[in-house]
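In the current project phase, the collection of sequences with tokenised folds has grown. A sample record is quoted in full directly below:
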Amino acid sequence: MAFRIYTKTGDEGETGLFGGKRLPKSHIRIDAYGTIDELNSYIGLARDYTENDATRMLLKEIQDRLFTIGSNLASDPDKKMEVPDIKPEDITRLEKEIDRMNDALPELKNFILPGGHPAVSTCHISRCVCRRAERLVVALAQQEWVDPIIIQYLNRLSDYLFVLARQIGDEQGIEEVNWAPRK
């Protein structure tokens, strides 16, 4: 018999963590790793829209790291379990890419509006979902232990996604639209 995707164990509004602990689906831990999954999906869409092979490879790597974060958050914090981890060099990699892209872009003098091309917009949506994931993980960390490097990685990833949106727009010849507040 083929593997069944449905288990029916969540039909009563609970889900299980790695390690067996059950939580209500409304628990902040479930919301946090669910938002990481949503972010991973948007990063996949950004990767689909991107034509630059080096960027596509890094976005794939980021998706791998997000899966790592999701597995950490989906694990029972009360049990010592062997799970993949985020390393300081993962953050350094993002910082180097941010600096490399930023050095080649025009100086940012105004707030800019998201949009102009589907790839640019997808990066901005990803950035917003990343910020939401970061807020949820910070809130979770106020209740239970969360490895601080996860918060650091998400913080740096949202910065990377902002600069990536600008870079893609620049590569595509898309003019940035400055925010024009009413006077």
Summary: The first strand starts at residue 14 and ends at 16.
